[in-house]
Amino acid sequence: MKMRFLDTLLAVTSLVSCASAFYPYCPPYRTLEDGQCIAPSDSLKATRDEVSGIASFKISQRRPQVEISHDEQMRRSVNRLIRKYDHSSQVRDVARNSIEERGAATNTYAIQTAATPAQTNSAGIDQDGTDFSYFAQVQFGSADTPLYMLLDTGASTTWVMGPSCGSAACKGHNSFGPGDSTTFQMGTESFYVAYGAGNVSGTLGSDSVSLAGMKFQMTFGIANNTSSDFEYFPIDGILGLSLDKSSTPSFLDTLVSSKAFKSNVFGISLNRASDGGNTGEINFGAPDTSKFTGTLSYTPVSSNGAGDWAIPLANVGFGSNQAGITGKLAYIDTGTSFIFCPPDQAAAFYAIVPGAKIASTGATDTYSVPCDTTTALTFTFGTTTYSVSPKDWISSSVNGVCTGNVFGRTIVPDAWLLGDTFLKNVYAVFDVDQTRVGRSCSSNCCYITLYYC
Fold it and tell me: What transmembrane ranges does the database entry give (predicted)?
């Protein structure tokens, strides 16, 4: 599923993780004529929905100073996803002594701030205003230092950018380390998260972590090195939400051992930036019943998912037409922006989309589709079919050409990675206790474990 950024924390003399938690693939339609990826606009203004009163954007913002070509962005992203899901790999960390001191930095990227949820033990899910990355503000240590943490159901490793990180990506972000908390305990073990074109590495430490009205003592990584990909997005670290087990407890392990809830479940609702006010949220302990109607039904996580939220996929379709893609696994991954599948299965899907044409081949196959397409992309789980709006699976027009956000690239052999393109259309419930993903119907329509908005 999602180009899982393989994350395995091994608490031994040296902690090693071949993981990848964020896949910021930049498709061709988001690039400039010279191939550079279009970053969020500097012109974003702080706006407020007149009905809900929800503030859409923070007033402090900036455009990332360095942009990257689409081809390079794609290569790095795909490689990270492959590493993320390649649970058989192990990469040994090596000592890194060169550290560039940096002054205090402030995360001033454009952010579409979420409204405060009404339900207890819930937190708003902010985003970057482009539907590329979704994150929540998490507080660390005795001073409750706030950091933007990517919510990644495709990763188990949790890490933050440390104050000694000299990487370019760290210089524009907030950080956390020993000097920020009187209760921080630095460990002696290292951690290493490997990417195809970079890595995140540093030392393990422990302190309090606060989110959604909960406060835990847990172990996480303090990064002194990060790859350049994190330079282009607001996130200051990764909050791993996968089921993957290692010798170091993950966030979900810590949640379960805390006995804070009768049911260890969490629900996720992602906002679509173009819809205006952000009502995205993550709910712990119980789903937000205002997001759906009816009774939740569940699909067990596959034993072949290697610790990921992978569920059996019965078929993929275009409206009422089915592509005959059966017996596959779908990895539900909040840390991936789009949808990825093996090239032959992408071809099978686009074969039933009238007017679709292959636009480019190579590392990743992309397809153009008629811009006036109004038919939904569908996924069938069990006997129920769920829809993805053309608002999400088809790009905006660029010089009269629209691109499908289903990309032909194998991340996990013979499996699909369903990222935010899919999740913006549902309310997803992840049941840790019974390793299953739930589904229900919204007040408008019936779609997967979730709620279609």
Answer: none
CA-CA distances (angstroms) from residue 428 to 12, 43, 147, 167? 35, 33, 24, 35
End of a domain among 258, 285, 305? 258
pTM attached to this predicted model: 0.82
* Confidence (pLDDT) at 194: 66
Q: What's the average pLDDT block by block, 10 residues per block, for the chain (453 residues)? A: 36 38 66 54 35 29 39 58 60 29 55 96 95 96 97 92 93 94 95 68 96 97 90 90 89 96 96 92 94 75 92 96 97 93 98 97 94 95 88 93 96 94 92 86 39 36
> Do 365 and 234 fall into the same domain?
no
**DSSP states along 426-437:** -EEEEETTTTEE
List residues with catalytic annotation. Answer: 152, 333
Q: Give the domain extent around 190.
A: 28-258
| Same domain membership, residue 340 and residue 312 | yes
Bridge partners (DSSP) of residue 340 are 407, 417
Cα–Cα dist 247/24, whole Å: 28
The number of folded domains in the chain is: 2
Label residue 63 exposed, middle or buried (CB < 10 Å: 0-12, 13-18, 19+): middle
CB contact at 8 A, 294 and 440: yes
Q: Which residues pair with 318 in a beta bridge?
A: 321, 377
Does 153 lie in the same domain as 42? yes
Whether residue 317 is found in the same domain as residue 401: yes
Beta carbons within 8 Å of 160's beta carbon, 6+ residues apart: 140, 147, 149, 175, 176, 220, 221, 222, 223, 236, 237
- Specify if 76 maps to a domain: yes
Using DSSP's 3-state secondary structure scheme, residue 108 falls into coil
